[in-house]
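Example A, followed by Example B.
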Amino acid sequence: MQIETLKLFCDVVRLRSFSRAAEANHVQQATASLAIQRLEERLGVLLIDRSRRPWRLTAAGRKFYAGCRDLVERYERLEAAISGQHRAADRSVRVAAIYSVGLHEMSRCVRQFHEQRPQARVELEYLHPGRVCERVLNDEVDLGIVSFPHGLTGLAVIPWRSEPMAVACHPQHPLAGQKELAARQLSGEAFVAFDAGLVIRKKIDAYLREQGAEVRVVLTFDNVEAVKRAVEAGSGVALLPLPTLEHELRARTLVAVPLAAPGLVRPLGFVHRRGHPLHPNAELFVQLLRGLDHAGDGPGMATRRGRAAARAP
C-alpha cells in the first residue's frame, strides 16, 4: 500500500470530493476512484458509502481516516526533514477566518507571502466562527482565525492581538457626542447584539452584567457587518471591535465612543489542531500577519485613525 494512495484517500475525505482530490494529487478522477476502490478491496471493508448523495464515510471509513490522517502528516513532516525545506515550500496554506478579520490586512499579508513563497498558494475563506473551528478540526484547513480563541477543545492557540471594543452609534444618536462612556450609561438603550450562541455575545453580556448595564436587545445578527448596517439605520447602539469600524468612521456613517475603564477587548488568535505542528508555510503566514501589527499601516494605525475619526467634528 503506497503512501500516495493513503494521501489520496485523506484528500477525498478532507475535500469531500473525488474530483477535487484528484486535482490536488494531479491524477484523473477515474484514477482516484479506482485507487479508493482497490484500497477497499485490500482492506476488505467499505470505506465510503457511495449509495447516498452526497456520499458518506462508513464507520470503518471514519476509523481508517483518523489513522491515515495522522500517518500521512507524520510522513510529510519526516520527508520535509530529510529532503530539506524546498519541497515544503510548495505547500499551500489553507486558512479559514471569521468575517470580521480585516480584508485589507489579510490581502497585504497574502501579497507578502507570495513575494517570499511564489511557488505556494494561500487558500483563504471567510466563515461563521463555528465553521472555522469545524474545518480546522476536520483538517480541511491548516489555520483558523477566530475571536476569543482559548478553551476550544482539540485546538491549539497562537495569540495574535487584542482589539478594544467601543460603543458604535449613529452620528445623530444622543450618545455620539460623548468623549467616553461608562457601560452603565447604556442601560435602557436599544441594543443591536450578536446571536446568543456566539462567544462574543456571551462575553459582551457578561461584561454588561458586571458593569450593571441592562440594555434592550432589539436585533441580533451573526456577523459584524450586519450589526454595523443595523446601527447605521438607527436601530440602536452596539459594542464592536474598534478596528472593524475603520471604514464607517472615515465615511462618517458611524461614531465610535470609547468605553471608560474597565473596558472590553476582543482577543484574536490563530488555531490549529492540537498535537499537529504547523508546516513551514503556515508558520510563515502567521508570522507575516502578526508582523503587520508593527508595520506602519497595521491594526494599530487603523485603531488610531478610528479614534481620530470618532473625535472629528
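Example B, a separate protein, is given below in the same form.
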Amino acid sequence: MIQYPKLEPFNFLGLEDQNYKKSRVVIFPVPYSSTTFWKSGTKEGPLAIIEASRHLELYDSELKKDPSRMGIFTLEQLEPSKNSPKETITTIKKVIREIIRDGKFPFMIGGEHSITSGAILAFYQKFSANFSILHIDAHTDSRDEYEGTKWHHACAMRRARDLGIKVTHVGIRSISEEETEYFKRKKINTIFFAPQLPVGKIISTLKKNVYLTFDLDAFDISIMPSVGSPEPGGLGWYEALHLIREVSKKRKVIGADAVELCPIPGISAPDFLAAKLIYKIIGYAI
C-alpha cells in the first residue's frame, strides 16, 4: 500500500477522517508545468482545486447522496522531475499502478496534460489496449513531437495511440495541419468538434472500460478562463455533465484526471468549477 502523509489542510473536500484502506477514490495532485503555455501557472492548479473543494457541499442533490462517504483519500503532491517530462511520467505511472493494484479509483489533478501519459501507461499494464480514452479537450494533443520531446502535453494522445489504445476526442476546436494529416492517414474518425456533442455516437466509439481525461480548456472560456491554452467557444457546464453522466451509465469509468487549471489571482470561480467537476465525476463513476 502507498504510504503518504495527509495534506492537512489540503485534503480534497477538506475531509479530516482519511483512511487509505477504506477509501474507494484516491486523489493524486501532480503540479507539473512546462513553460510552453501561452499563460504559465498550471503547476498551481492542484492546490487551487483542493482549496476550493473544501468549500463545496458534500451532498449531491442530483444524485441524492454524499459521494464522499465512499471514502476519498488525498495523496501528497508529487514532486515533479526537473530533468525531463518522461521522468515525471515514469514516476506517475508507478504511483497510479500502485493505486490500481490496491483496488482504488485514481483521480489525478494537474498540472499540464502531459501527466496523463503516466496514468495511461499504468492502465495499459493492467488492461493492455482493452480500454478506451475519452479525451475532453479543446485540442487533440496528437502531435508526434513538440518542442523537442515526444512527451509534451501536445503529444499525450498520440502516445496513447502508439500503444493501440482507442481515443475519442470531444470538444475539439483547435487542430494543427500535422494532426489533421495524421488522422486522415490513419482513417481516424473519433473526433467530435465543438459545438457538436452527439452523446449516443460518442458512447458508441468507447469500449467497456474508459479512462476519462478532462482538459479544462474544453469548457467555454466564459466559465473557464483559467487555463494555459484558452480557445474561444467550448462546452457548457450542464452539457459536459450530461455527457459524463451518460458515459458512466453505459460504460465503466476506471480512472480519471482533470488538468490544466491555471489559476488567475482574484478570480476563484474557475477553481470552484474544477473542484465541483471532479466531485461530480466521482459521484457519476463510482
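On Example B: The longest helix spans residues 85-101.
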